[in-house]
Amino acid sequence: MGRYILRRVAQAVGMLFLVMFVLHLLTTLAIQLNGNPALAFFGDKIPSAAQLAAVEQRFGLDDPCYDQAGNPCFGPFVERLGQYAQGDFGTNLRGREVTDIVASAAPNTLRLFVMVTITWLLLGMVLGSVAARWRGSPSDHGIRLTSVLIDALPVFVLLLVYKEIVTVPLSTWSEETFGENSWPPYWFKPSFDPEHPWATIAVPGILLGLAGSAAFIRLVRASQLESYTGDHVRTARSKGLTEGRVVLHHVVRNSSIPVVTAVGLTFAEALSGAVITEGIMNIYGMGGVLWDAVRNSDVGLVLGIVTILTAVTVVVMIVVDIAYAALDPRIRYE
Q1: How far, CA to CA in Å, does 31 sit from each of 61, 67, 273, 299?
Q2: Most Cβ neighbours (<10 Å): which of 1, 134, 177, 223?
Q3: Hey, is 91 helix, strand or coil?
């Protein structure tokens, strides 16, 4: 198991390096083709040559390679790697440290992902298990139809309907029923409240998780249907084990392997969903910060945040690989 983990960590480090290099090449090419991003620092004002040179030096954009289309700019890339190794991810256009911005925005995004993951697992395992256990029944057809409807509704439609139509009457009703200072009114607030982060993130997180749960429901159903007809399940039943023990230990456990894999694979997809969710619900998180950085052509902030998100995604993939090996011991020997 130790060698398996070390091998996965080595592969993850190589993957992280490759992603950072590709990101550097794309950013460099964009600068060479579209012009100097240091101009974004001045907004609508026209800077003097000295002012522009000072800003270029401050943000590491003064290397002549940025003026040569097709030059990969290896020098700035190596310099940036050295800064990253020392924990220096640069600053945004206003001079604020990227690590400081991430430290203030990341907790809200993590809260959002906690709610999303719980929703995925609960809906996927419960509805997928019910559909597989009673295959062909009305409940199976209903769950499959529901998963299709969920797929047909993009997350931004769900969030807009919730924010524009549902939140006001529910918030008013909960205030009249439970009191203005109770928890329920915060659950249905139309925007994020930094003083009650968990309460105001719960419903948007559930909606984002709901939008991505259809694939989990179908995945669990298909996986458990295969397990129900497997030899190991027939053997367990022939030994006289109770149906509940057979389902929990031989069907649900085996079906959780593809689900764990899917959680890792859809993590990156959830990041894009977080950008939309945080934007619509006014949540101060990583997605909203990244969106603003792209709109403002803040190259340093974009590079810093994308690098950190890539590192987080790689760590999640390692955790998924370890969990995968723990659930299926054959994996670690391949």
Answers
A1: 9, 8, 27, 9
A2: 223
A3: strand
